[in-house]
Amino acid sequence: MDMNGLPVRDLFQRHPDNPILTVRDLPYRANSVFNAGAALVDGETVLLLRVEDRRGISHLTTARSKNGIYRWRIDEQPTLMPSPETHPEEIWGIEDPRITYLEEEGLWAVVYTAYSEGGPLVSLALTEDFRHFERQGPIMPPEDKDAALFPVRFQGRWALLHRPVSTFPAVGAHIWISFSPDLKHWGDHRILIPARRGAWWDANKIGLSPPPLRTEEGWLILYHGVRTTASGAIYRLGLALLDLEDPQRVLARSSQWIMAPETAYEIFGDVDKVVFPCGWVLKGEEIWLYYGGADKCLALATARLPELLQWLREDGEVEG
Ligand code: BMA
User: Fold this and answer.
1) Which of 60, 92, 129, 193 has most Cβ atoms within 10 angstroms of its Cβ?
2) Which residues fall within 8 angstroms of residue 264, CB to CB, at 6 or more apart?
3) Is residue 146 in contact with ligand 1, taking CB distance under 6 Å?
4) The whole model's pTM is what?
5) Is a pLDDT exceeding 70 seen at residue 120?
């Protein structure tokens, strides 16, 4: 109960018909559908589903729905298959797309994980229609994933959030920011949001979840924290806020997590205890979050944007 004697309500409310998409909804045989990127296109919701086939290799498939919940029109065949002949870094699949509309280009940028022989890395493709994609190739070497672009430039440069992993002992895996004049050459790399340490829910390993969302108060960031326990990892979600003009400035960061695996489809799957969003869309003041459940299915949860911002004001640690 809260101070007023009301039940404590979660910031994100799960859709009662979750999971909204499973492998049984696909028009072809596969192992799992999860971790989808999301976009609103002419009032329709477009998802770029991560589909893992029964070899274990992932590809991306486009699904469209007028209401964003039911009656998905899913491409009959994989929409974007890995192309190891032309892009050797995609040999073991393409995963976890994050979609950003690049306003000045009038194009959608899809930043995804390519699973190379040297480990996972960050690749970029551009599309106008989620049918045809122009690959731009790898933009960050391995091991790096959980990346997304901002929709605008900052002082002439594009900015990318991403999560490189270092083998240097005990440094942790943090969210970094990098800049580019042309979406191809990247530099000025620096740690933006470090993983916490010790017993925290987001100790040692964190990563960006969906792309940054522009709000009046700053860029809203939803990120996952990976807590290692004796019975495996737990993937949970927390919030941060970046300065609108200068995304290198972290204005606030949740101390507590706001969403964790709780339901059967989040707790039991190919990888247990995982909620993993790669996409969200804003409808008025409501955020619709699309997330993978236990690396097996796709689920939807909604939250009110003003409540998330208020939460950050109350629970957020103000940085620097
Ligand atoms: C991460 C990514 C995600 C996956 C998660 C849990 O490292 O590979 O695709 O959902 O692990 O297995």
Assistant:
1) 60
2) none
3) no
4) 0.97
5) yes
